[in-house]
Design a protein that fits this description.
Largest sheet: 4 strands, antiparallel
Bound molecules: FE2/S2 (inorganic) cluster
CATH architecture of the largest domain: 3-layer Sandwich
CATH topology of the largest domain: Rieske Iron-sulfur Protein
Helix content: 10-25%
Number of helices: 1
Strand content: 25-35%
Number of domains: 2
Strand order of the largest sheet: 5-6-7-8
C-alpha cells in the first residue's frame, strides 16, 4: 500500500515579512487616520495653548486720566495709579502699577514707569532736587528719567502713550531689570 507523505514544509527566509493584503490596507488606514487626527489637532492645540504665547501686552492699555486735567508744564512729574488686565497663562488678573506723568516743555506728555530698572523698587520723585531717587540702592535719575547715578545700568523706562477722546492712555510694559539695554519681558 502506498504511503502518504505530508507535503514538505517550505521554510521561509527569516528576512521576508509576509503581509496579507488586508493587514496592509489596515495599516495604511491607520497611518492615514493618525495623520488626519494630527492635522485636526493643530487648530485645537493652537486654541488651547493661545494664552501661553499670546502677547499679554494687548490687554495692558490703561486709562491715566483726562488730558486737560493733567498738571501744567513746569509742575514736575505726578504719580498716577493705573490698572490693567494681565494674562498669566490661562488666568486673567488685574494688576495695579504706578507711573510718573509729566507735561514736558515742548508740550508733549511723558510717562515713565516707576519701577526702578535696577532691581524693581519704586522710584520716588524729589521735587526739591528736581530728580528721582530709588530708596533701595540709591540710583538717581534726572527729571526726564535719564540715569544720573547707579547702580542702575540705564535710565527709567518710558512707556508708550495714546490719546483717545481727550483721555490719556498708557501701555504698561515690564522691562528686564539690571541690564543696560531696554527689553520688554511682558
Ligand atoms: S532697586 Fe533701585 S537702585 Fe536698586
Amino acid at each position: 500500500m502506498e504511503q502518504h507523505h505530508p507535503a514538505p514544509v517550505r521554510e521561509l527566509d527569516s528576512n521576508v515579512i509576509v503581509i496579507s493584503r488586508r493587514s496592509f490596507f489596515g495599516a495604511l488606514l491607520g497611518v492615514g487616520g493618525v495623520a488626519m487626527s494630527a492635522l485636526l489637532a493643530i487648530p485645537v492645540l493652537r486654541y488651547v495653548l493661545y494664552p501661553l504665547y499670546a502677547n499679554s501686552a494687548l490687554s495692558k492699555w490703561s486709562k491715566v486720566g483726562i488730558v486737560d486735567s493733567l498738571p501744567p508744564q513746569g509742575s514736575g512729574p505726578v504719580l498716577k495709579q493705573i490698572t490693567f488686565r494681565r494674562l498669566d497663562g490661562w488666568r486673567e488678573t488685574v494688576t495695579t502699577e504706578s507711573v510718573y506723568v509729566e507735561r514736558t516743555q515742548d508740550g508733549k506728555i511723558r510717562v515713565l514707569s516707576s519701577i526702578c530698572p535696577h532691581l524693581g523698587c519704586t522710584v520716588q520723585w524729589r521735587a526739591a532736587k528736581g530728580d528721582f531717587v530709588c530708596p533701595c540702592h540709591g540710583s538717581v535719575y534726572g527729571e526726564d528719567g535719564k540715569l544720573v547715578k547707579g547702580p542702575a545700568r540705564r535710565g527709567m523706562d518710558p512707556l508708550p502713550t495714546e490719546q483717545k477722546e481727550g483721555e490719556l492712555l498708557v501701555h504698561f510694559e515690564f522691562f528686564r531689570e539690571d541690564v543696560p539695554y531696554r527689553e520688554v519681558v511682558s
